[in-house]
Here is the input.
Amino acid sequence: MFYTYLIFLQNVLFLYLTQKYTYMLVTTSTHLEGYKVIQHLGVVRGIVVRSRSLLGNIAGGFQTLFGGNISIYTELCERTRSDAFKLMEEHAKQLNANAIINMRYDANEVMQGVTEVLAYGTAVLVEKA
Here is the structure.
């Protein structure tokens, strides 16, 4: 029983230590306060192209009749930005980066009702200053 508990604690400690270093620092600034950039690894991006379904467009159309926040489109936009952000982070991890500086979003209409959202920035390797 005690041995099992020690193994459990060892696994928890391992997960804590590995997760501690796997998060990605992301900033819209050109530098990270308290960190020194060791190496620039290049531009990283995440791109998502989305459209609302026919039923979603109908529901959004009804919401526009009453004015205010059009929640169905707000949800779509937020989910799309989040997905693009995650893809950008994955791209940076493939380059072994631990931070992204100068992060930006861009959105363009590809065709009527179809929008592209791009999250991009510069992947860097940083260490505490």
About this structure: The longest strand covers residues 35-51. The mean pLDDT is 81.
